[in-house]
Amino acid sequence: MRCFLALPVDIDTEEALSTLQDELQVGRLVDAQGFHITLAFLDEQADSTLARLHEELCLLDLSSVAPQIVGLQVDSAATPHLLWASLAETADLRRIQRAVAGAVKSVDITLPRRRFRPHITLSRFGRRLPAETHAKIARFLGRFATFQHDLAPIDRLVLYRSDLTPDGAIYTELADYALQSRPDEGVLT
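and the corresponding structure tokens:
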């Protein structure tokens, strides 16, 4: 099955990003309940491989994280295919992503070689954008490129199944793994 590991997004963030999508209204908008921060795309994997990965993920000892959206951007201003909310690249997010990538590689799953850029995808665009659509995207970014938002602390990592449909991907939670609060994060123990 086609899977990925990600951090889920809180309801307030879903609502804030959904409100932004209402302003955009072009492309294939990601359903608000599908918002997430991808840490590792696993592609197609056998159940036996996912069972081994589950064992590795259960061993991880990771802290919760409270990311911040620091702006909106597209992958290419000239020919945009994706619009996303960029997250501040913090040591905490990198630590979680590296630990997850290590667990994935330990069960012989090959990850794409690309730099980790934490983000939440908001919309996808076709290969050939009409000039009017391109202009709408540019106007939208002109108004909202500097959008900022603090996410609520994320206290779990999720293994999702991704089923592709003509209307977009449907994500189903297969398992989740606790991210622990630490005393130095202001949590009383």
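(Above: one complete record from the training split.) The chain has a mean pLDDT of 93.
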